[in-house]
Amino acid sequence: MNGSHPVDISILVQVAETLESIVSRCFGPHGGLVLFTKATGELLITRDGQKILSSLLLEQPIAKIIVHSAVAHCHVTGDGTKSFILLLAALLRGLRVMVMRETTRSTGRHGQHGLQLKLLSDHLLAFQTQVLDHIVRCHLRQCASSLFLSDRDCKVTRSNAKLLLEAYFYGKVGANHCQSLSTLACDYYLKCTGGDQCNEVVGFICDHFEELHTKVVGIPSSSSRILEGLVLHRDFTEYWPTEEELKILVITEPLQPPLVDASATLYLQSDQQLQSSCAWIHQRVQEILSRLSVSGVRLILSSVKQTDLVLYHAKLNRISVVECMDPEELSLFCSISGAAPVSPWDIFLDQPTHLAQAQFCKSILLGAHRYAHVGITSKSLCPQYCIVLCGPVSGLTIQCASAFHGAFKMLRQTLQPLESRYGPHETSENIELQNGIDCVVSSINVCPAEGEAYGGTDRVEQPRQCLARNLIPGGMHHSEPLHFHSCHVKEECCGDKLLEPHCTCNIGDATSIMKRTIELNAKSTGDNSLVINAQIDLIPSPTREEECLCTLIAPGSVFPVGGSFELLLHYHLLKYASHCLDPGTKAVCNLVANALLSIPRNIYTAGKSTRHFLHVYTKAMRDIQSEGRVRDGPKMLESVSCKYQLLISTLECMRSLICIDCFIVGTRRVSPPASP
Amino acid sequence: MSRLEVQRSALRLSDPLSDGRTQQQLCELEQIFASCYGPCGQLKQIHNNRGGHIQTTSTALVLLRGVPVSDPLLKLLCASVLNHISRFSDCGLFTSILSCRLIQSALQLNFHSSTIVRIFKHLLGDCIRYLNSDSCACKLKIDFNSTQVLLSLARSIIVSKPACLLNSKEVQHVSCLLLKAFLHTVPCHIGGNTLLGKTIVYSIEGHRAEKSSLFPGMLLDLLDTCPKFVHTKLTSRSIKVMVFSASLSGDLPEGVNGGVEACTGVSPEAVLLESLLNLGSQLIADDVDLLVCQKVVHPALKQQLKKHKMIVVDRLGHALMEPLTQITGATAIASFQTAVPHKCYGQLKGLDMVSVASKRLLHLIPFEDSCVYTLVLCNRNETTLNELKIACQTAEHVLKLTLKDPFALLGGGCTEVHLSAYIRNKVTSEMNCELADLDCTATEYMVVARCFCSSLEYVARALDHEGRECLIDLSHGHKWIVPSNEFIGCKWSDLVTQCACGSIEKSNRMNWVVLDGNYDTFSPKLIENIQMENIPECIILDSFAAKTNALQVAVETASLVLDFKHVVKDVN
Fold it and tell me: Which one is the CATH code of B12-137+410-569: 1.10.560.10, 3.40.50.850, 2.60.120.460, 3.40.50.300?
């Protein structure tokens, strides 16, 4: 496989389709599981796209690039690897069709392809920066519902959180364990945060999830539960049960002073020397432990092994000891409780400080192992609870644990506002407005409803309602309509397209108006329903307003599951494409719109489901036209920012792939460039 | 030196269960388990062609560890059963046979696996709810005032391991010993930190099982010739005991990480020996009778102490230290170089040399309220002894589980048959409300439920290895076995006497039907009198906690295996 291999669009499609065939069987609510075996005999069970793809150990370089981008996306959002692959495959397929169509007109050579693809890549970038953000901002944002109770009160309602988590777990662990895990996750979230929007706590849980959960095998998974306090994954070496409040000492060195250090040598010059040294050591240990006992320490947490003498004196002083703790766990304990590791000399010279305070300390039996269970008193916002996940096999518990982790990553992403990367921008149709506005709508889109014929050359001149939205600096909410005007919109219909209607409306004083979006919502009285959408944007002015326009997706925005995001975006993209003038952007919009359908198609045609995809599609298009949102879908929710992020990541991956001309395989290892 | 190798891609297999090889392996595995099940089960000998350990067994624990399985799905199944055994010790074979059977029958149905899995989960929930409810007719409440039920439970477990080769008298004897040991380990006074006591098992090969016995306290093997003065230390007064966890061999103490150099004329060994002998003289002065050390004792110290008629036991090992400290109340001392505090001494009621089977052991007799007992198990040869040890461990664990869940289920297959009848009845009578939740058609629900019930009945029938006919009675839903194969022209009521678990005798108003899945549904009756005192002597019982967990693990494992769409093997 040495030498250089040219990369053609068909190779890209082939690789993407292979990956798609693997991933599509595990996708959606009816997808199946994958079992991995290693040569060591280890078994891993998963439905998680990231694990499936990274365990395949692919050799094809293109496949490796795709998998790498998918996994990187998953690290941020916790979800969406399979959707990534499906979307990418559909995009590449559409791209190939487009490219083939172009080359049938001209003599198709490889160089020609490359140029075309490069141009397309530029168009894609323009699409991302201008069209996508714009559509999301203007259309999708209004249809999204919120996780929170209301705009001002940032408390997450239990029912909404449950719906969001249920949808996530349905895709990650399947219908079997979905209910129990989502209830557990919801309870855990509400217990740790108290329902308030607390991004730091969710972030903390995500970062330290390894230490905050315990896996137990041999018991059915319905016994998973939440425990108060922290479980330290080590058993007591010495155990004295205490029910009252106690102090805990954290230590990372042996308490017994060594007779000889590792790098030193002891020279014995007399018999008494050895004896007196040993006696001195003995006395020191005794003193240290009695001092600890006097200052109320009842538990010592040590990351190293302590000597028998230390354990013996701890036993005499009724102090419990946990040895050989994981350093990560110990640092988590310190950050939650505010303690710090103490050196033995500090204990001896002075009263020990930096002790942790705890409410209880007992031994707990989880599965076949006995662990230490500590209830820490902490003033910080860190979570005071930990989770026990049970399952018949360790592969299943690992799957549940990683799904749980991913759920919290997804929650973290949802609860943060997503910012537009590209800033407010101008569309190509830019018209200056003065006080008395005389706006000329440059292009209109007319979508007759499905099944309804558009009556020929009617001249429609009916009063319309003009909905004007003002954006006053100081952050009024975007969707509050302020003025309703009746104005006359003269439309001339000719064939099946309306030409340039004119709307004259006088909208108050414009001194404080920076940007205006006028939407003409037309409801006809006749059989035809017309939706006229026009966007007129001003040249944006000072930067202060730009910041509040940068938040593309508000924290807590959610959509119903089942592809409603994709269907909505598909509809609006098609509409935009049909009134767009630039052929490149138009082609890209069509491409993305059609590719977006692959996700709902896979959801509805897989498995035994009574909702056929086409039926869903036609109904959804009808709903969007009439009401602007999809009705009657499943009740569960999914996060808008994750979906948006998915689309952006896929487009960027595709852009990087289509710019590759050929790949060169060599036998020598390429060393990374030397750092300066 | 590790070698860098090019990483090879993984192998992928789609729809693993449709592979003929996997199905065949599944079938064989099920055959192995089903043929070992029960008191009449056939033994399996596990050995490998290159020599090595040969094991003869019928227990799931040894079988699963010894039989190598190559298919990944079946490895998963075995891992799941092993995890269950590590938690509950019993019903391992039941779990494995039930999950194999569920997978095989589900594969023959033509429905989507997610539907089957959903319905299985729902039916499992029904079973567990029924078993946990008060009106369950196959559940027996354990009355701790009488030993009968506990004894039957222990006996059922010993009998279910045929490789022990015990006759009925020996079974009775061993079960009584086990029950006594269990009852003794429950402490009389419940304080703040109450722990169950421990039963130490000491095994001796080459004797009949009737020679097994139970001793309070501990038995220690004196590897030296037994000192003659032990008999003089009988129970005139209590024995003073000193326990050391540190090594008394004269090594440098812990904490020497670097090097030690001695100048000429300085001898560290002599220094340390001197402190050992000082310790010895302190012990002698304090009139200590017994010195026990976890590690090695220096021979010079041993000699000094023996001269003064003190018994020295060394190389005890870590496992026996905790029961020893529990019996004597001594604190194990970690250093010999300083004076020993008096509060660390322990007390024993007495010492004795006992002769058990062919061995002479030192018996440490504790005071009356101690919870540590030693069970001496004997059996004819190594194989039967190992099986007996496993059986006793299982019985001990099951008896301990009754402290948390004081129930027992009817054994002999009656619980499975009863559950199956209950589920059939529930499915036909309450179908409409379930369908809406499950998102499936009525046919699917009925067919999958029938498949579930017939798997349960298959497990019950697997107990019988002689091909005898199994019947179900239409009033209580218990399993009945026809003793002989000659039943042409006879009615069922002439051939059967009592049900498989032994709890019901035949009566005139009963009707029987062959247990093959095609009977009319009926609602199984609650047996009123089984909850009261007249429980028959020879009733067969199963552990409640172990069996319910086994049922849940089996159904969950089967659901997991049915759900796989790909298997990926890493060949690196």
Answer: 1.10.560.10
Chain A residues whose beta carbon lies within 8 Å of the beta carbon of residue B84: 218, 392
Question: Do the bridges between strand B311-313 and strand B44-46 make them parallel or antiparallel, or are there none, so unpaired?
Answer: unpaired
- pLDDT, residue B7, reads 65
Q: pLDDT tens, A217-261?
A: 888 888 889 998 888 898 888 888 777 888 888 888 888 888 877
Across the interface, whether the CB atoms of A309 and B254 are under 8 A apart is answered yes
Question: What pLDDT score does A55 carry?
Answer: 78
Query: Does the structural domain A3-144+558-665 have CATH classification 2.40.160.60?
Result: no
ipTM above 0.85, yes or no: no
User: Cα separation of A614 and A616, whole Å?
Assistant: 5
Helices (H) and strands (E) in chain A, counts: 22, 24
Interface of A with B in 356-395 (CB under 8 A): 367-368, 391-395
* pLDDT number for residue A446: 34
Superfamily of domain B218-252+266-369: GroEL (3.50.7.10)
Q: Give the pLDDT confidence of A434-455 residue by residue, as tens digits.
A: 222 233 332 333 333 333 333 3
| SS3 track for A336-402 | HHCCCCCCHHHHHHCCCCCCEEEEEEEEEEECCEEEEEEEECCCCCCCCEEEEEEECCHHHHHHHHH
Which B positions 421-440 lie with beta carbon below 8 A of chain A?
none
pLDDT score of B28: 92
Q: Which of A35, A257, A268 is closest, CB to CB, to B76? A: A35
Domain boundaries along the sequence of chain B: 12-137+410-569, 218-252+266-369
Rounded Cα distance between A365 and A227, Å, is 12
> How far, in Å, CA of A114 to CA of A125, rounded?
17
Residue ranges, chain B, pLDDT below 50:
1, 528-529
CB contact under 8 A, B76 and A32: no
Whether residue A308 and residue B16 make contact (CB cut-off 8 A), yes or no, is: no
A648 in contact with chain B, both atoms CB, cutoff 8 A: no
Chain B nearest CA to A568, separation (Å): 28
Has residue A668 got a pLDDT over 60? yes
> How big is chain A, counted in residues?
676
A230-383, what's its fold? GroEL (3.50.7)
CB contact under 8 A, B79 and A43: yes
